[in-house]
Amino acid sequence: MALTFQQIVLRAAQGAKVPGFLDQAGEALNMVLANLAEFYNFDLRHNDGFTVTTNSVSPPEGPYPLPADYLRHVFRETRFIVNGVPYVLFQVPLPLLKKQFTGQGFTTYPQVFATDISDSGKNVFFWPPPNAPYEIEFPYYSASPQEPDPANSTNVPWFPISEYLVKATQAILLSDYDDDRAERMEFKAEQILTKYLKMKDDRQGYAETIKLDSKNFAGRGDLPSTKQDPF
Fold first, then answer.
1. 48: Cβ–Cβ under 8 A, 6 or more apart, which residues?
2. Residue 220's pLDDT is what?
């Protein structure tokens, strides 16, 4: 059974022999969860319900706002559909996209996109500039939400392996106070995480599309024509 924030914080603080440092343990637990979302593509952080409607802003190439919890897009899943035909968009660096021609009258189906993640906000740009409103499916991996008061929260963290969360939180507490047990505890936490990642990525008995299969790129608009664009 998964532990609550409160239970994880209490166990981590007690295990580190600093039972009164519950606030610090809560901050460490939030940090552990944030790092998991930042460094790994977990299905648990996969959000496939977000869409961008092109031509809803001016200029038509953007910027279009992204959700506040956006971390990164899901590879090969950004697309729109015209008359039943899917068109997959590919990500390029923002400086490269901004160098492309966007003069008056130059609009067509968008082929690529770039994200701008800055302190002022999170946005996405498209190129070529869209020539009509398209509902672009934009699945993404989301950041881990910050629990306001972990030491007293009865909520259950999104990551399902409580043992890892306890030991990883405990390792941060030990490290913060130069405890010699920190490295050993971090190693134990990594062992648990590695085991979970191997199970999560086990594809035995699971039919998975091969990325280089010609069905992924031939004749369906999945790849932009290399003779027509600079990418």
1. 74, 77, 137, 139
2. 47
User: Both ends of the chain: CA-CA distance in Å?
Assistant: 49
Q: Which residues contact 54 (CB under 8 A, 6 or more apart)?
A: 60, 64, 80, 110, 126, 130, 132, 133, 134, 136
Contact 61, 116 (CB under 8 A): no
Half-sphere exposure of 74 (CA within 13 A, CB side): 20
| Alpha-carbon dihedral 205, 216, 218, 73, rounded to 10 degrees | 180
Is pTM beyond 0.85? Reply is no
- Residue carrying the six token digits 């009164």: 20
Domain residue spans of the chain: 5-43+144-200, 49-138
Question: What sign has the CA pseudo-torsion 105, 76, 225, 87?
Answer: negative
Does pLDDT of 158 surpass 70?
A: yes
